[in-house]
Amino acid sequence: MVISNGQVVHSRGYGYANLEEKTPITATSTFRLGSISKQFTAMALAMLADQGKLNYSDRTGKHVPALSP
Fold first, then answer.
1. What's the pLDDT at 51?
2. pLDDT tens digits for range 19-49
3. CA angle 37, 42, 47 (to 5 degrees)
4. Rounded to whole angstroms, how far apart are CA atoms 21 and 17?
5. What is the pTM of this model?
């Protein structure tokens, strides 16, 4: 999905959701991500830390007030 100015400008799936059955991926296909998203979160945090936008020792609530105790 591509979003520009809060509006969806492109939404499409590519490839197969199931190779054996040749079920195509659609814009509404869902997938089990499991733990794979942790690597992307870690990289995003590393990039923000590198830019000086956060410190590894910051509490989550500092940046996401809804998660403050």
1. 97
2. 999 999 998 898 887 778 889 999 999 999 9
3. 130
4. 9
5. 0.49
Report the DSSP beta bridge partners of residue 8.
Answer: 3
Alpha-helix runs per DSSP H in the chain:
37-50, 60-63
Per the CB < 8 A criterion, the answer to whether 25 and 16 are in contact is: yes
Q: How far apart are CA 18 and CA 25, in angstroms?
A: 8
Give the percent of the chain with pLDDT over 70. 100
Instruction: Say how far apart CA 28 and CA 12 lie, in whole Å.
Output: 9
Residue with tokens 């100015």: 5
